[in-house]
């Protein structure tokens, strides 16, 4: 770290949104292979509040060990401030975006005015969108892309013995549960882009935006359980996941696939196998190369980031409180100097 300071949101202990403190912190010093970015917007994601809480949902032996004070966050959009001597392809003044150092718990440090980013995880910001929409994309869009199109990394998955394999989507029937949320609203668009017939599942207030994003059908789960009406699907992307994801097994045709974005708690492996259903998940990983590819789709509006709400960096606590309310439409974004 340098002797200079910046504003950042840090926590000195695990807990609820009230542990997020807006305060002075050391400005990161540039290391070999890195780019220093002046941050303009920060997308917030579930791993932010999982870490803030100390990953209490995980078994104790899986909970990461971190050093306090800790800066949360991974997703940023901003302007290059400086570039290490060994880095090519980026220059001071470039507008860029990134998912920073994920999955390295406690190392990303995005809730700040400046962040150092490995050059391999950085991409030029899509020119056709602003920093708020660019910061909303990285983790959620990379998750949808790596689940459904191209894995993009070789990291082993401790929750399953074999690597995750995306499935061809052209001409297939796909249901996206939790379709209005961060991953879900991108999954709808990715599936549609790749030629699938898409059914979106969310509460009724999200129907209009999801149909506008390309969904062919909509199920309001507050009125109709989707597992009661959907049948003969090729793929279910369950962006909610967890213990209830097994209910979608009966909606799939033999040979179909169930992709729970949050796979912990799934207890129906035997039932899935009996019906010839593949259940598979992956852990999203940073990829500047994939963000460069996706930037073209964001730039021309082929894929759009929906913004639920924005908060100044100093109001990160209020942003986390909004997240805890649920029924988020798209993404919540923190802004810095905008």
Kindly describe this structure.
The protein has 338 residues and is α/β, with parallel strands linked by helices. The protein folds into two domains: 5-138 and 306-335, Medium-chain alcohol dehydrogenases, catalytic domain (Quinone Oxidoreductase, Chain A, domain 1, Alpha-Beta Complex); 156-279, Rossmann fold (3-Layer(aba) Sandwich). It is built from nine helices and 16 strands. Strands 3, 5, 6, 7, 8, 15 and 16 form a seven-stranded mixed beta sheet that branches. A six-stranded parallel beta sheet has the order 11-10-9-12-13-14. The chain has a three-stranded antiparallel beta sheet with strand order 2-1-4, with no helix packed on it. Helix 3 packs across helix 4. The radius of gyration is 20 Å and the shape is globular.
Topology:
Elements: E1 5-11, E2 21-26, E3 34-43, H1 46-52, E4 70-71, E5 75-83, E6 95-99, E7 114-118, E8 122-124, H2 131-135, H3 138-148, E9 173-177, H4 182-193, E10 197-202, H5 207-212, E11 217-220, H6 226-229, E12 233-238, E13 252-260, H7 269-274, E14 278-279, H8 288-299, E15 307-312, H9 316-325, E16 331-335
Parallel strand pairs: 9-10, 9-12, 10-11, 12-13, 13-14, 15-16
Antiparallel strand pairs: 1-2, 1-4, 3-5, 3-7, 3-16, 5-6, 6-8
Helix pairs in contact: 3-4
């Amino acid at each position: 770290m340098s002797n200079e300071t910046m504003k950042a949101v840090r926590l000195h202990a695990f807990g609820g949104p009230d542990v997020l403190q807006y305060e002075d912190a050391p400005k990161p010093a540039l290391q070999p292979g890195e780019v220093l970015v002046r941050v303009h917007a920060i997308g917030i994601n579930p791993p932010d509040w999982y870490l803030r809480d100390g990953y209490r949902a995980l078994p104790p032996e899986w909970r990461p060990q971190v050093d306090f004070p800790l800066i949360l966050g991974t997703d940023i959009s901003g302007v290059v401030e400086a570039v290490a001597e060994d880095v090519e392809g980026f220059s001071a003044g470039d507008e860029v975006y990134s998912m920073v150092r994920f999955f390295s718990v406690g190392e990303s440090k995005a809730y700040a005015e400046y962040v150092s980013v490995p050059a391999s995880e950085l991409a030029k910001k899509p020119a056709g969108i602003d920093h708020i929409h660019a910061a909303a994309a990285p983790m959620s869009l990379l998750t949808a892309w790596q689940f459904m199109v191209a894995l993009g990394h070789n990291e082993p998955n401790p929750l399953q013995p074999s690597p995750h394999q995306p499935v061809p989507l052209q001409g297939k029937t796909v249901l996206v549960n939790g379709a209005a949320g961060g991953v879900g609203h991108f999954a709808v668009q990715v599936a549609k882009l790749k030629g699938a017939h898409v059914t979106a599942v969310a509460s009724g207030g999200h129907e209009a935006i999801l149909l506008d994003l390309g969904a062919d059908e909509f199920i309001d789960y507050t009125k109709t359980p989707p597992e009661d009406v959907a049948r003969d699907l090729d793929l279910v992307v369950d962006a909610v996941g967890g213990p209830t994801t097994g209910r979608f097994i009966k909606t799939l045709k033999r040979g179909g696939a169930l992709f729970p974005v949050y796979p912990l708690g799934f207890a129906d492996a035997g039932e899935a196998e009996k019906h010839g259903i593949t259940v598979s998940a992956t852990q999203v990983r940073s990829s500047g190369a994939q963000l460069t590819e996706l930037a073209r789709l964001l730039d021309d509006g082929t894929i759009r980031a929906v913004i639920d709400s924005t908060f100044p960096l100093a109001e990160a606590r209020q942003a986390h409180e909004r997240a805890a309310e649920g029924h988020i439409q798209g993404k919540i974004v923190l802004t810095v100097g905008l």
